[in-house]
Amino acid sequence: MRYFKKIVGERLYLSPINPDDYEIYTKWLNDPAVVGYLGFRAGVNLSNERVELEKMAAEGNVFAIVRTADDMLIGNVDLHNIDQRSRRAELGIYIGEAENRSQGYGAEAIRLLLKYGFDTLNLHNIDLTAHSDNERGIACYKKVGFREYGRRREAAFKNGNYCDIVHMDILENEFRESYGK
C-alpha cells in the first residue's frame, strides 16, 4: 500500500509522507502558483526533493493529503517548529493541482491536523503565516477558526511588488468550541 490512513476525515485522509512521491512534489514545487504563497522560489530538483522528503518522513508530523475516493495524493500539510514546553507549533499546507483547490480539501486537511495537534501532540497554540495576496488561503484559515493577530508590512517581495505577511493562530479552546471536540 502506498498510503496509510493515519488521520481519517470525510473526503480525505492524512498519511505519513512517502519519499517515493518526490517527482510529484518536484512538479508542484516548481509551479509558481503553488510556491508563490509558500515563501520560497520555485526551482526544486528531483534529487534534492527526494532527500528533503526522506528527512520529513523521518521527522514525522508531515503528512500527505490523500483523497479517499481514489487514494490520490493532492497535497501536503505539516506541523513544524514544535515547542513542547510552550505547547505551540506552526502549520504549513499546500494543495498541488489547481483542480483540487477551492474544493474544501484544504479546510478539511487543516481541521484534521489541528485535531491531531491538540489531541495527540497536546498543543495549545498553532499558528501560520500567509501572504496578504493569498486571499483564498486566508479565507480558508478563517473558515477553520484561525484569527489574524498581526502583520509584517510589505515583508514579502513577489513579482515586482511587496505584500504583507499575515500572522494567524488558533488556540486549543477555540478549536474545541468550534468543533465540539
Question: What do these coordinates show?
Answer:
- There is one protein chain.
- The chain is 32% helix and 35% strand.
- With 181 residues, the protein is of the alpha+beta class.
- It has a single domain, classed as Gcn5-related N-acetyltransferase (GNAT) (Aminopeptidase), CATH 3.40.630.
- It is globular, with a radius of gyration of 16 Å.
- The chain has an eight-stranded mixed beta sheet.
Principal-axis shape equals globular
For the record, the CATH architecture stands as 3-Layer(aba) Sandwich
Overall pLDDT:
92
What share of residues are in beta strands? 25-35%
- CATH C-level: Alpha Beta
Decide which structural class fits the backbone: alpha+beta
Question: Radius of gyration from the CA trace?
Answer: 16 Å
Tally of helical runs? 6
Helix content: 25-40%
The CATH superfamily turns out to be: Gcn5-related N-acetyltransferase (GNAT)
Distance between the termini: 31 Å
CATH topology: Aminopeptidase
Number of domains in the coordinates?
Answer: 1
Q: What's the count of strands?
A: 8
The main sheet comes to: 8 strands, mixed
Low-confidence stretches: none
Order of strands side by side in the largest beta sheet? 1-2-3-4-5-6-8-7
**Secondary-structure element order, as H and E?**
EEHHHEEEHEHEEH
